[in-house]
Amino acid sequence: MALIPLESNPDVMTKFIHQLGVPSKWTLVDVYGLDQDVLAIVPKPTLALILLYPHSKKAQAYTNGRKPFPINNGPTTKDKLLENAAKICSEYMARDPDELGFTMIALAAANE
């Protein structure tokens, strides 16, 4: 069985999640950086931040899918989710500073 590369185009992924049953009031949007000014343009509320990254030994050490539980990064609130998730992603990305293949998208409120 061949693996299919993960699509990171927010428009394509939004159509896909809507086909899976996610209500149309939610959309996926690009996140262009982790600075507060850049995060401020992400629509609110934000339900999730998705970090797409290349497979490497450094990545596998942190995200080992064989763990019987999700990695607990601590509590958050609806108002702080994007900021807290961005901090975790930034720390994760710093593990491999030479890697430039990271992409982030957020599940956020659709602009009506």
Automatic annotation (TrEMBL):
Domain of life: Eukaryota
Gene3D superfamilies xref list: Peptidase C12, ubiquitin carboxyl-terminal hydrolase, Ubiquitin carboxyl-terminal hydrolase, domain 2
E.C. number(s) listed in UniProt: 3.4.19.12
Top-level EC class: hydrolase
Record-annotated UCH catalytic domain positions: 2-112
One matching Pfam family: Peptidase_C12
One GO-annotated biological process of the protein: protein deubiquitination
GO annotations of cellular component type: cytoplasm
Catalytic reactions on record: Thiol-dependent hydrolysis of ester, thioester, amide, peptide and isopeptide bonds formed by the C-terminal Gly of ubiquitin (a 76-residue protein attached to proteins as an intracellular targeting signal)
GO molecular function, one term: cysteine-type deubiquitinase activity
Keywords (A to Z) from UniProt: Hydrolase, Protease, Thiol protease, Ubl conjugation pathway
InterPro entries the UniProt entry points to: Papain-like_cys_pep_sf, Peptidase_C12_UCH, Peptidase_C12_UCH_sf
Record keyword RNA-binding present: no
This protein's record includes keyword Hydrolase: yes
Entry's family note: Belongs to the peptidase C12 family.
Protein name per its UniProtKB record: Ubiquitin carboxyl-terminal hydrolase
